[in-house]
């Protein structure tokens, strides 16, 4: 869950980074266009001054030149902000990538520990099964020994031992 959350955050940050880069390219393109307009206006201004007709037209050109310079300044400011955002997003992106790697490492470590615990559990189950088999064998041997003791204790002197082993119920019936 943590890994998928980090991956989603990483994808969001990368998407924002792509959007900011796209906006940056658009702003740079607009800035180049404005600079071309400004150069064209400057060339126009120079040609008008050479002709000597710069009276009212000169004021209009100056006004447009000032507005274009203001737009260039605003575009450069916006571009600087976009660069700042890009650097912040890249920092966040690298941090998220580091967290993702750490999370993956931790997950792999837990998986190895779980596999080891499962192996130990299987080994303990095998040992338990062996112990049960040994206990069953000892119980059977104990029952045989007990039956032999009962037969030896309760059989009359000089009598022959029965061919088959006596069970507890047979001994009980004989005693009753």
From TrEMBL:
Source taxon at top rank: Eukaryota
Keyword line: Coiled coil
Coiled coil segments of this chain: 3-44, 72-99
InterPro entries registered for this protein in UniProt: CC-FHA_domain
Annotated region described as Disordered, given as residue ranges: 156-176
PANTHER family named among the record's database cross-references: COILED-COIL DOMAIN-CONTAINING PROTEIN 27, FORKHEAD-ASSOCIATED DOMAIN-CONTAINING PROTEIN 1-RELATED
UniProt protein name: CCD27 protein
Organism encoding this protein: Upupa epops (Eurasian hoopoe)
Gene coding for it: Ccdc27
């Amino acid at each position: 869950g943590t890994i998928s959350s980090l991956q989603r955050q990483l994808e969001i940050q990368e998407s924002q980074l792509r959007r900011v880069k796209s906006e940056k390219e658009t702003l740079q393109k607009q800035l180049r266009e404005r600079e071309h307009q400004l150069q064209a206006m400057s060339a126009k201004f120079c040609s008008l001054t050479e002709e000597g007709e710069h009276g009212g037209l000169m004021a209009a050109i100056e006004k447009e030149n000032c507005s274009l310079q203001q737009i260039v300044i605003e575009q450069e400011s916006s571009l600087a902000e976009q660069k700042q955002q890009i650097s912040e997003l890249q920092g966040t992106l690298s941090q998220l990538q580091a967290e993702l790697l750490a999370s993956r490492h931790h997950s792999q470590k837990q998986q190895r520990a779980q596999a080891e615990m499962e192996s130990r559990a299987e080994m303990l189950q095998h040992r338990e099964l062996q112990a049960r088999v040994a206990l069953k064998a000892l119980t059977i041997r104990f029952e045989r020994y007990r039956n032999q003791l009962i037969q030896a204790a309760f059989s009359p002197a000089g009598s022959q031992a029965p061919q088959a082993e006596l069970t507890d119920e047979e001994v009980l019936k004989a005693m009753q």
